[in-house]
């Protein structure tokens, strides 16, 4: 076994494993608009993971094939949808007798790489200008300059009240996204406003594009990953401002997500608006079973080759059926990539002891139905022919009477399933008929051989001893012994891989095991491990996980190999680079274990509190706001003075009130009247409010009254209780 290959990223596939090349090539040839054409918007529509970006990549490859600087000849007449034929007909009507397009200018833009509506449009416009000027000689550079001048003018006309309403209506809020000019420039524009003709500037851009004699193809991918307001900004820009002649916009998006964004959560209204913008839409159909199978087979075959795993005869007999199961358990290409990443971690551990075909299907099943995987582990009798897993320990936690009752229930459930003609595990399957069939088929593949003698010889997972070994190897409970934990702690790349492979349920247990084995690790890479944990903390939201990450980092700093200088260096790095709630938890842990007279720690606490104040001013809200407020109290020796001042001030505005009170949303749907414990738990969280009556008054007077009126009764109840003698 050699060094394991890296995990697969979520990038578009470069090789066409789905048979899309012909469609992509035909579509690509229709995208170079002929002379005289107006702007066109073409949409590639599909759900996340459906392969939109892969199709876009194939289209771009067909537009400018490698080694060929000229586009392929036009085949508009051969496009079955008639789109290119209509374009050709329109252009000929305007006097263009040669429908063959010149080499197009292709401009790629991924809006997900830019944050903020203003920056989005600014970067898009800059990208368009750069694309025009890059390979188009002097004419291209002149036209690019005209584009930038036009949008700079739009930007600054927005700032002048004397601009005619018709002009500002054309530009809309897009003016704000194209750069800024100096105060002197504003005065010059205002002075000579009568000489400024916005239509003339626009015409100059159009004339420059016509003289280039080249079509523009602007590719905008991942539109559906943007926040709703940024989706609207991009669509409005394409529609109202940069509808250049002979320009085609190729947009890739999830139709439903974009429609909801355009319709302010009203998908029906958004769809009507989207249909006005997009002239031609190509929905990507769901992948067929055959397409998913082909993609899965290619990926898994490549993985086995990289891992130097050769299938044994008893595995070859099952391999084709296992790939079929993976195709059924996967909904799209993204699912298959994630399954392959799971197998990258699992197969090197289990190869010698468990059938590879079973491991492939079990991991695919675990990804699609994680709750079913838990039931397989916790209720193995229903899957392994009535046999319990060796070393399964229900009796350690139950009395003999409870254990006997539990066993009686299981036997009754299995008997009833047999009477109904169902599989023993049917009670654990989802109600949805399609999902149920998919899960049942995978379980039959894995567990229907439990009665067969070859199950042990074939290392089948249906044999209780094999299943037990597999579970011990691939779950946190048994997989991470000292040797494995020390290996991960000594090589941070392995730590990074394991952190990526664990889901949110597995992460806390994995982090707990690291805490156990850190003290005994003699080859610990403290700096490398802390760097990987800092990176992971930036992508985790759940407090139980971020708390554990903080504990692991603190445990690393307590290791004997951690010098005082190194510890102070790492403390500062953690405080500055981790999210505010992560660093707050870490600083609180450090405060508990480091001497009170430690000057560097006290300085660090001051820096964290200063950072927390800035984050709160910057708009922090909800659970994270409350979490940070309590950390401030802890680090200020349980003094509530500053926190009371912060919350009181926040409640004076609707925006601040919303950010603060949203931190109680997790209790909104609790039945507080019937559950004293829940009510008391909520009451304790009111201690960061100094004047309860003031907050009640703010809610009643606020436009947010309907949203937070449910809090008024608990606040009044706690106010009366806290004021009672």
SSE blueprint and pairings:
Layout: H1 21-30, E1 40-45, H2 52-63, H3 83-93, E2 105-109, H4 117-134, H5 137-157, H6 165-171, H7 183-191, H8 198-212, E3 216-220, H9 228-241, E4 247-253, H10 255-262, H11 267-277, E5 280-283, H12 289-306, H13 313-329, H14 333-350, H15 356-368, H16 370-378, H17 400-419, H18 433-447, H19 454-457, H20 464-474, H21 476-479, H22 482-490, H23 492-501, H24 507-517, H25 526-537, H26 543-558, H27 564-577, H28 580-593, H29 599-617, H30 622-635, H31 641-650, H32 654-661, H33 676-684, H34 692-701, H35 705-708, H36 712-723
Parallel strand pairs: 1-4, 1-5, 2-3, 3-4
Key features?
about 5% strand; mainly alpha; about 725 residues; five-stranded parallel beta sheet
Number of helices: 36
| Overall body shape | globular
Helix proportion range:
55-70%
Number of β-strand runs: 5
Low-confidence stretches: 66-101, 158-181, 391-404
Compute the separation of the termini in Å. 73 Å
Sheet with most strands: 5 strands, parallel
- The assigned structural class equals mainly alpha
Average of per-residue pLDDT values: 78
As laid out across the biggest beta sheet, the strand order is: 2-3-4-1-5
Strand residue percentage: under 5%
Q: Work out the radius of gyration.
A: 31 Å
Description:
The protein is mainly alpha-helical and 725 residues long. Helix content is 60%, strand content 4%. The protein has 36 helices and five strands. Strands 2-3-4-1-5 form a five-stranded parallel β-sheet, sandwiched between helices. Strand 3, helix 9 and strand 4 form a beta-alpha-beta unit. Helix 12 runs parallel beside helix 14 (333-350). The longest helix is centred in the N-terminal third of the chain and has 21 residues, at 137-157. The chain is globular and about 75 Å long. The N and C termini lie far apart (73 Å).
């Amino acid at each position: 076994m050699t060094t394991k290959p890296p995990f697969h990223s979520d990038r578009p596939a470069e090789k066409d494993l789905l048979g899309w090349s012909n469609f992509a090539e035909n579509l690509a040839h229709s995208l170079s608009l002929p002379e005289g054409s107006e702007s066109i918007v073409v949409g590639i529509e599909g759900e996340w993971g459906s392969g939109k970006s892969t199709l876009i990549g194939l289209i771009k490859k067909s537009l400018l094939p490698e080694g060929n600087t000229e586009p392929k000849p036009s085949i508009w007449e051969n496009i079955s949808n008639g789109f290119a034929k209509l374009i050709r007909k329109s252009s000929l009507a305007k006097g263009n007798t040669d429908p063959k397009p010149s080499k197009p200018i292709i401009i790629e833009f991924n809006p997900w790489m830019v944050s903020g509506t203003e920056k989005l449009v600014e970067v898009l416009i800059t990208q368009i200008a750069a694309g025009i000027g890059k390979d188009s000689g002097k004419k291209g550079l002149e036209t690019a300059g005209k584009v930038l001048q036009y949008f700079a003018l739009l930007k600054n006309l927005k700032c002048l009240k004397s601009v005619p309403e018709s002009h500002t209506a054309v530009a809309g809020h897009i003016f704000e996204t194209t750069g800024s000019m100096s105060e002197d420039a504003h005065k010059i524009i205002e002075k000579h406003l009568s000489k400024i003709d916005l239509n003339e500037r626009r015409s100059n851009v159009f004339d420059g594009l016509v003289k280039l004699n080249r079509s523009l193809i602007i590719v905008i991918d991942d539109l559906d990953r943007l926040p709703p307001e940024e989706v609207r900004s991009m669509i409005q820009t394409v529609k109202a401002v940069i509808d250049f002649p002979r320009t085609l916009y190729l947009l890739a998006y999830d139709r439903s997500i974009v429609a909801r964004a355009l319709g302010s959560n009203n998908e029906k209204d958004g769809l009507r608006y989207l249909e006005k913008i997009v002239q031609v839409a190509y929905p990507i159909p769901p992948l067929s079973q055959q397409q998913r199978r082909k993609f899965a087979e290619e990926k898994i075959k490549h993985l086995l080759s990289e891992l130097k795993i050769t299938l044994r005869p008893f595995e070859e007999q099952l391999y084709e059926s296992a790939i079929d199961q993976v195709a059924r358990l996967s909904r799209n290409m993204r699912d298959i990539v994630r399954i392959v990443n799971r197998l990258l971690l699992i197969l090197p551990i289990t190869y010698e002891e468990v059938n590879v075909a079973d491991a492939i299907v079990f991991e695919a099943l675990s990804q699609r139905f994680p709750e079913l995987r838990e039931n397989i582990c916790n209720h193995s009798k229903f899957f392994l022919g009535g046999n319990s897993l060796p070393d399964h320990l229900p009796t350690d936690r139950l009395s003999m009477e409870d254990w006997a009752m539990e066993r009686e229930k299981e036997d009754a459930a299995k008997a009833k399933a047999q009477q109904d003609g169902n599989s023993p595990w049917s009670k654990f399957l989802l109600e949805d008929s399609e999902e149920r069939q998919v899960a049942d088929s995978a379980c039959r593949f894995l567990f229907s051989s439990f009665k067969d003698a070859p199950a042990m010889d074939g290392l089948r997972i249906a044999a209780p001893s094999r299943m037990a070994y597999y579970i011990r190897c691939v779950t946190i409970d048994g997989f991470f012994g000292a040797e494995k934990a020390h290996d991960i702690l000594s090589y941070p790349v392995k730590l990074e891989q394991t952190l990526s492979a664990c889901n949110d349920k597995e992460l806390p247990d994995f982090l707990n095991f690291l805490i156990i084995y850190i003290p005994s690790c003699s080859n610990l890479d403290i700096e490398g491990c802390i760097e990987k944990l800092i990176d992971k903390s930036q992508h985790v939201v759940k407090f139980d996980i971020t708390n554990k990450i903080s504990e692991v980092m603190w445990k690393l700093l307590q290791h004997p190999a951690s010098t005082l200088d190194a510890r102070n260096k790492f403390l500062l790095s953690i405080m500055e680079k981790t999210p505010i709630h992560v660093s707050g938890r870490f600083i609180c842990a450090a405060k508990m274990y480091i001497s009170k007279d430690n000057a560097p720690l006290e300085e660090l606490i001051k820096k964290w509190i200063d950072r927390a104040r800035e984050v709160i001013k910057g708009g922090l809200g909800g659970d994270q706001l409350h979490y940070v407020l309590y950390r401030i109290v802890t680090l200020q020796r349980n003094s509530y003075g500053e926190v009371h001042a912060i919350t009181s001030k926040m409640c004076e505005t609707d925006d601040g009130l919303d950010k603060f009170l949203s931190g109680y949303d997790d209790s909104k749907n609790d039945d507080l009247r019937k559950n004293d414990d829940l009510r008391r738990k909520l009451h304790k969280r009111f201690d960061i409010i100094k004047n309860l009556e003031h907050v009640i008054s703010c809610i009643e007077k606020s436009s947010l009254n309907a949203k937070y009126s449910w809090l008024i009764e608990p606040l009044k109840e706690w106010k009366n209780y806290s004021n009672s003698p």
